[in-house]
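Chapter review: from sequence to fold.
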Amino acid sequence: MQPSSPPITASPPGRFAASGRAIVRSVGFAPELSSESAGWNSLALYAWRGQCQEAAFEPFEEPVIVYHVGGAQTVPVRVGGKWDRQTHPGLVTIIPPATRIGWDIRGEVHSRSVHLGSRFFSAVEGVGSSTSSIRFRCGVQDPLLISAIAALESELRQPQQHGTLYADSVSDCMALHLLRECAGASIPKPNRRGGLSAPLLRRVLERLESCIETGVSLQALADEARLSRAYFSAAFRQATGSSAHRYLTQRRLARARELLRNTRLPLAEIALRCGFSSQAHFTEYFHREVGVTPSQFRHA
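The token string follows.
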């Protein structure tokens, strides 16, 4: 039985829009927050809050993580035809693709759903049939997934830098965690043949340098190196000692220092030229990393 539904706003077009619309139809209300317009290609995040009785879902095409933030204190969960599981606030449920699931909420929905693209999983060699190895898990404590969801939500509500590299990195971290911890898969490390040669590393670093202002996706960098995303991330860290996102952020900071020393550009203009979404986020990050504000650095 479905509750009376408020007007439903369709999700904007996007890779995961079909999944978002399916949830909207089932729960009867639109998400209060959606990543559909954020340009994220490797994952989607939705924040759900509203009243609902029972919600049933056809199988999703992608792995989905549901974080039960609050609302109804005990929610029975049906997998297949059995109501033999339940979840509570503070717990996550991991739903593999092709899993039919239902929720007997009878109260307030207060949750986050994260939908992970399958391209990452299929690119990881040596883990069997990729997403098919992920097990359904209901109402489990998983601090890493909860922290990752909180980080993604924070970035979605207040983007700090241009580009999708941060979201891509968090997405891949979650995917690896699912394969390692929730599927028992062994993820192979890149060997020398699959790593970054000096010419490839130089090409990738040049690509990062050219994208300081606009940002770049992790997939674009992996394509530049002719590696899968999983292998590229590990190989880049092995070659540089940091993640691609951290490297790009440090290059943005270096350019900001240069502009502060050698130009009289307004701080808002420097923030944009260095890939930060606003002067406020630029100032916050600069102070955290350097120990002084951009204005103090300029006048030192």
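Two observations follow directly from the output. The radius of gyration is 21 Å. The first strand starts at residue 33 and ends at 34.
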